[in-house]
Every structure is written in C-alpha cells, then in structure tokens.
Amino acid sequence: MTEPLLAVQQLQTSFHTQAGEVQSVRGVSFTVREGDIVGIVGESGSGKTITAKSILRLIPSPGVIKGGVVQFRGEDMLKMSERRLREVRGNQIAMISQDPMTALNPVVKIGTQLVEVLRRHRKLSRAEARQKAIELLRQVGITSPEKRIDQYPHEFSGGMRQRVMIAMALSCEPDLLIADEPTTALDVTIQAQILSLMKRLSDTTKTSILLITHDLGVVAQVCTRIIVMYGGLIMEEGTVEDIFERPQHPYTKGLLRSIPRVQEGERERLMAIDGSPPDLLHPPTGCPFMERCAVATERCHELPLYVEAGPSHRALCWYAGQEEASVGDRLANGSGTSIKIALGVTDETAVHEEVGGHEHE
Prior knowledge:
- It is a peripheral membrane protein.
- The chain is α/β, with parallel strands linked by helices and 361 residues long.
- It contains 14 helices and 12 strands.
- Among the domains are: 93-171, no CATH class; 241-355, no CATH class.
C-alpha cells in the first residue's frame, strides 16, 4: 500500500485565554490518500476548522500547536521553515475559506488576485497569468470570464465568489485541497452546483480534498471517507457506507437521527441530541460525549480506546459494535438507504442528477 499523501498524528492545538487554556484539538490522528475526498463533520466547536488550520500552521494568536506530527508527502509541516511553508501553501496544499467575501480583498479586482497567485507560485508572465486566470474562471463555470476578471468581489454573488475561491485554490494544481464549509450560507441550488463542481474537479485532476462541514447530506454526496469529531477528538472514522449504514458511536447515531426524512406519507418528529458540547476549558477526562449519551455507564468516565469495527472503520467508544441493529438500518426502514435519506432524495436517478449534473449560472 502506498504512503498517504497527508498523515496527521496526535495533533494538539490550544488557545491560551484569560479564562485559561482552551484545548480545541486534543490528539487527532488520520490520513488522506491520493484521490480521497475525506469529510470532517461535527457540531460547531468540535475542532474541525482548527484541525485544518493547524495542518497549514495558520492558527492565530493566542493559539498554539502543542504537539503532534503533520506529514505531507513524508515531510513534517510542523517543523518546516517559514520559507518552505510558503512554498507549500497555495502551491501543493490550497485552502478554501469559510466566507469568500472576507477571504477575497474587496478593493482589488478578481483578476489581480488570481494573477498574483499564479505569478508567485507558477512564475508566469503577467500576460500568461491573466490568460490562465481566464481559463480557470471558465473551468469553474463562470460565464464571460474575459469580462468578469476585471470586476470586484462585490459584483459577484455568494456562489460566484465561492467559485472564484475554488479557481484560486486550484490555480496551482495542488495535491490537497482543504475546503472549510464551502457551501455555508449558499442556497440549495448553488450548494449542489458547488459540490458537483468540486467532485468533478477531483475526478479530473486527482486532487485530494479535505472537506469540513456540519452537514451530513453534503458528505453523503461527495465524500469517500468520513471523520466525525466532537470535543476536540475523533469519535468515529470510516467509509461513507460504514458511517451511514453501520454507525458505531452514539454521537454518530444521534447525528443520523437528526436528519430530516423525505418520504411520502410519513411524518416524524426529529430527534435532537440533548445537552451541550463539553467545555474545552475543562475537558472531561473520559468520553467527551458521556454527559449527553443515553447508554453511558461508569466505565465511560475513563477515556475509551478506539475499537476497530472494520478494515477502515473505528470508533472511540467502549461499547462500539455491540448493538444488533444499526441506526442506519432503522433510518432506512426497509425502503432505500440512509445515505439517500441524508441526500434528501428517494431514488437513484435523483442522486445522480444532484451529484453529476452540469453547472448552471
């Protein structure tokens, strides 16, 4: 088996505040292989974005990466010099920020911002970089790119700005693309277009994607593997089929129960997860989900070890794999799969159209 493109081992990141140390990431380990689309899901504050920013060493003060190893193509990014890190950022690893309006400079034309990236990393002339920028805008589905390239960010809609960010991220043909909530605040139609675009670009360019989101429907559409985070730790990791059809951790099952079902003739109240996420100023010594877990016991006061539930499936729970019927089976209820329920569709044709359809303005 080939070495992973990205290997994160025991990553720990904290923020030192006046109230004390906030332990945002508390020992996270995972890998991303070439061509993978890995989704990181979880509630707000679970550590998803901080994990991604720690990989690129973009943690703002008073944050600090306390420990761990982040190997990219065998090289530890946490030990790289600033000069070497600047060569990797944007060139070999690119990131799409959560809010494209704040990520783009509002007083600089779109073309200027794209050309700057290309000239810095690809060493192109100004004319060559401009032509490449126009091609990139066309590639991500922006009409009349020759005109649009000379416009400012405020002249684009939210979905179009997100396409510009994708074009900028892909401009240097990175090996790894980190997308932090790329569909946040976009309407459903634009969200589907952006996800379809990312999936198609990954298929054609073989770029690996680390997709951060709180939306299980999003990861069901495009991801090959899913990481479920909570309280700064990975609760469960597996393939899309593992997570949706054979969930092992009570937190994952709770997330699945909260997905609205779209089936004709059925009405059912959503099941919320009671309680609040743990206080990471004083993180629990045991399972971070214990206080909200319906099946917790005294044993859960001790932090569990990962239980291997399959070749690529693990869960941080003492009781993983002990339930006979999975939440995925109960959600499916004998008609269709829980993955389709997460997508909000009821037939394979609809899934194909949602994921593989052409882009429209």
